[in-house]
Amino acid sequence: MAASSSPKVKVITSECFLIRDALTMKEQVELSAYIHDRDRTPQNEPRAMVPAPRTLVLGDDGASPTVKYRRGDASVVTTMVDQGVACLKRENLGLTGITNDIAEYTSLSMATIRYEAPNGRFPPHVDHCKDSAVFLVSLGRSANFMVRGREETEVRRFQLQSGDALVFDASTEAGLLHGVESIDVA
């Protein structure tokens, strides 16, 4: 995940961190190719008048949107997560609501959502994944994000640029409201 300009971590709110330049261009291409090779999403479906974000089918069964990994598995996905964790640890940051040491994760799963530009949106929501962290990465285009921490009134808006990562506690207890407001065209 080390980009030509080294990754920089920004605290968005408690239990939510933005890692700028998390992936190099080469790593973005590798991850994109990995997703493309695994994608089993039906291609001949009619196009909606207002296209919604689409969760790709990546599972080996041809139906599941997720691929599961164990810590230590050799894959572009575990490498990305491990490097993101290392960035947080260098800054003495972590997801204390989940674990004392995020580097000690035992398993992870990957899902991919494809958005159309410029109208791709994902309404603000709170995840409900107990003891889980989310590592979001933008590939190709920038996503305009909103985040609001639990019991906060201020909404933070920022651009998740291609190659950036957003890491956050996905538990109900963290109560992190987040959403994609739009996708940049250029």
UniProtKB/TrEMBL annotation:
Superkingdom, natural source: Eukaryota
InterPro entries tied to this protein: AlkB-like, AlkB-like_sf
SUPFAM superfamilies: Clavaminate synthase-like (SSF51197)
Domain Alpha-ketoglutarate-dependent dioxygenase AlkB-like stretches: 113-183
Name of this protein: Alpha-ketoglutarate-dependent dioxygenase AlkB-like domain-containing protein
Lineage: Eukaryota, Sar, Stramenopiles, Ochrophyta, Bacillariophyta
